[in-house]
Amino acid sequence: METLPDHEADLSALIAHLYDAAMEASSWPGTASRIAKALGSTSAVVKLHGEHGHVSLLECTSNLVVSERDQAWADEWHRRDLWVERSVAHGLGRIITDEDLVRPEEQARSGFYQEWLPHLGIHHMLGAVFPVAQGVMGVLGIHRPREAGAYTDQERRQAAIVLPHLQRALHIGQRLTALEGQHSAALQALDRLDAGVLIVDRRGLIIQASARAEVMLRECPELVVDRGRLSLHQPSLRDKLLALVRAALETAQGRGGQAGTALLVPRTQSAPLVLSVAPLSAHAGLHDREQPAALIFIRDPEASLDVAHLQELFGLTRAEATVAAALGRGRSLEDIATELNISIGTVRTHLKRSLAKTGTHRQAQLVALMARGA
């Protein structure tokens, strides 16, 4: 089998690495060293220049890292990067070298050449400035010392091969980071709900479960996970749940109507669980044209309320919040007195004070506020 020349093999390996790094952020460190090696250089940097002089170093070789003592000085030179300033005038996305930008006579009087570059041990540059986002430019800088000689036309062509892949990899990485942020925010929102939330596919397979849902699946014997699929312990309810999920999937695909949206799951010694099913909009998939899903909300009317949250929200004492939370779970005053080992009179006193602090006037209003609002 025919083998590639060393420089072509290095470029191919570098390009493959760029896409690996775009997909997995942990692979990004060390990318600058790979770029430098593939282009016969001693150092490289990938950075972003934004508005108001903001500069962000995405990756650089170790020789471009300065001490903490010199960081402010280095930041100033990055903002005043002569090569970046001149490269913009030559056109975004165009491969250039230091010889295109600075004449030898300028170097003798330039602080950039006389102070900054000698500190880094570099002199020659090969690179480009390219658009990244509104008001943000990406910078690829590849360097080597004076004695290594200026960059050749062949090395320009090699850099031109790498540049579009670097741009695309950065774009992919930024897009994935944004999607991961949205996904994380959505999961955190689900975890904050007072219900367990499951996302299931057309087969009932659990795609995602909120933290509260995972606890419910472990602790509620009425809920069953069979080979990764949500089911119910009572056979008579399994078909009903499946019908709700299928109806939600039909709605998610824009056809059919809801056969129902809710289901009560009886429990032996507790109030029934309440399951609500809703469609989740279909989205494009890699292999399937559409992947509809269903959201299943599981509410336990007897779930404990956060006492600390009630204290903060209404200014209740801990004892008042404990009584109010118990009322919200459907406990009677007598049950609360027994559970807390206090007199019924003390429970009534806590109730009276809770009514005043929450702006409610009757016990039923307080119960509704605890169960639905707090």
Structural notes for this entry:
- The protein has 374 residues and is of the alpha+beta class.
- The chain has 15 helices and twelve strands.
- The strands form three sheets. Strands 2-1-5-4-3 form a five-stranded antiparallel beta sheet, with helices on both faces. A five-stranded antiparallel beta sheet has the order 7-6-12-11-10.
- The longest helix is centred in the middle third of the chain and has 40 residues, at 153-192.
- Residues 284-288 have low confidence and may be disordered.
Fold blueprint:
Blueprint: H1 6-23, H2 31-38, E1 43-49, E2 55-60, H3 71-79, H4 82-90, E3 96-97, H5 98-101, H6 104-109, H7 111-120, E4 124-133, E5 136-144, H8 153-192, E6 196-200, E7 206-209, H9 211-219, E8 223-226, E9 229-232, H10 235-252, E10 262-265, E11 273-280, E12 293-299, H11 307-314, H12 318-328, H13 333-340, H14 344-358, H15 363-373
Antiparallel strand pairs: 1-2, 1-5, 3-4, 4-5, 6-7, 6-12, 8-9, 10-11, 11-12
Helix pairs in contact: 1-2, 1-8, 11-12, 12-14, 12-15, 13-14
Q: How would you summarize this macromolecular structure in one to three sentences?
A:
Helices cover 49% and strands 19% of the residues. The protein has 374 residues and is α+β, with helices and mostly antiparallel strands.
Q: Provide the gyration radius in Å.
A: 32 Å
Shape: elongated
Regions with little confidence, pLDDT below 50 for 5+ residues: 284-288
Average pLDDT works out at 87
